[in-house]
Amino acid sequence: LHRHREHSANAENLLPEVSNPGHGSSQHGAPTFPVIPEPVHPAPEVVQPAVDAYQAAAEVAHSARTLHQNEVHSPISTGRVFYGIMFDAGSTGSRIHIYKFIQKDPVELPVLDNEIYHAVKPGLSSYKDNPEEGGNTIRQLLKIAKKAIPKEAWSRTPVVLKATAGLRMLPEEKANALLKEVQEVLDDSPFFVREDGVSIMNGANEGVLAWVTVNFLTGHLYSNTRKTVGILDLGGGSTQITFLPKSKKTIETAPVTYISNFDLFNHTYKVYTHSYLGNGLYAARLAILGAKDANDVEDRVFTSSCFPKKYRGEVTIFGTTYKVSGIPDGYAGYKLCYYEVMKVIKGIVHQPYEVKGNSIFYAFSYYFDRANDTGLIDDRGGVLEVRDFKKRAKEVCNKMTKYGAINPFLCMDMTYITCLLKEGFGFKDSTVLQLTKKVNNVETSWALGATFDYFRNLNI
Ligand SMILES: O=c1ccn([C@@H]2O[C@H](COP(=O)(O)OP(=O)(O)O)[C@@H](O)[C@H]2O)c(=O)[nH]1
């Protein structure tokens, strides 16, 4: 069942070259794609705008370079190399993505050569009362960029930071203090910072940009079939669902704000996307425990039948520590846990008309992590059905002595994921999920899509 994803030793083949779409994905093939992107050259009219997209990237770099009078001495003589740095300031961690592109020929399409990725915990929002410390975590990550990018290219390499649910959930003045601090850190760096370089990204963009990343990496944006895959992203604070509806009814029956338009490679896409703030895995834990807006946190012990009966412990979520325990003389197990979890999902999550169908969704972030923790997939990811999450959630909750020892929250997390997929989004037991952390060695996250959006406005 598990999908083996090999990494090419040849750096040039790490990503599907835009000029030869589907190369990477057919080579590393996930046979469960609805349709494997065809390994043929796309129609010229499809290629052309992609050229524009990358030329825009080169232009940004160029203007920065003229400003600073720096020349690029690329270590690779075969072409011009340029970089982009994207920070993901998430609710549970901060991450740096350093993308290297190669423009082999001025008229040819540049290729995404590789990504350097590094993550630190906790997220910026945990430094809500100490913004300076928060800024330091970003300063540490910037050191990696300085090592990875040749000095000559620093001043023309854009650096951007986008914060997600963690900062969205903070009171405005706390979030602003953190943003201000981070802005100063980036301004002090030798990289190129645009005026809008530090911001809180809205949920619709978060969903759309992750969709762009995954469909780019899997070659779906260039295939003639126009088929794409949906994405499911489960963060700590929020969760996103994004897909390209096949049926008009999905669009007509969705709340208007759940439909987003954007331009990419000469196409306008109309996707279903929504970000549920407060429905990320860690925010959900707080809601399930009834700890979400509690102000007497120090004096309370938050109980749940999702924990092993005799469990007592502490958990730190978004910078606050909570005392938690099982219900010693009560009941534990899947059924009761499901009942607790239902309360934070029912009536909150909209069920799109179309997920009852047979489309494939790429699921990553905490979907991947928990599937991996419970042995449903190994580190390479794999293909699951929604029913696999349910089955494993039951096992985890009903054998708490075994799984609870690994992580006392496993039952709650797995039950939440099951409940979100089934009762929330309305997926069938047989819906296929492609659990993915990386595609061709590049992280599946909104960060690559956001880098494209930086270089050429997608007009989301
Ligand atoms: O490039 C990335 C970015 C994120 N993640 C994972 O995705 C989840 C992201 O949660 P985050 O804290 O960003 O939540 P949000 O703020 O979006 O709710 C965590 O499991 C991360 O390890 C990842 O694997 N690769």
Automatic annotation (TrEMBL):
Q: How does it assemble?
A: Monomer; active form. Homodimer; disulfide-linked. Homodimers are enzymatically inactive.
Q: Which cofactor does it need?
A: Ca(2+); Mg(2+)
Which PROSITE patterns does the protein's record reference? GDA1_CD39_NTPASE
InterPro entries cross-referenced by the UniProt entry: GDA1_CD39_NTPase
Q: Where is this region: Disordered?
A: 1-32
What's the protein called, per UniProt? Answer: nucleoside diphosphate phosphatase
This protein's species is Tetraodon nigroviridis (Spotted green pufferfish)
PANTHER family named among the record's database cross-references: ADENOSINE/GUANOSINE DIPHOSPHATASE (PTHR11782), NUCLEOSIDE DIPHOSPHATE PHOSPHATASE ENTPD5 (PTHR11782:SF35)
Q: Which residues bind ATP?
A: G236, G237, S238, T239, Q240
Q: In which pathway does it act?
A: Protein modification; protein glycosylation
The entry's localization annotation reads: Endoplasmic reticulum; Secreted
UniProt record, GO biological process: bone mineralization; phosphate ion homeostasis
Which reaction does this enzyme catalyse, per its entry?
A: a ribonucleoside 5'-diphosphate + H2O = a ribonucleoside 5'-phosphate + phosphate + H(+); ADP + H2O = AMP + phosphate + H(+); UDP + H2O = UMP + phosphate + H(+); GDP + H2O = GMP + phosphate + H(+)
Q: Which residues form the active site?
A: E206 (proton acceptor)
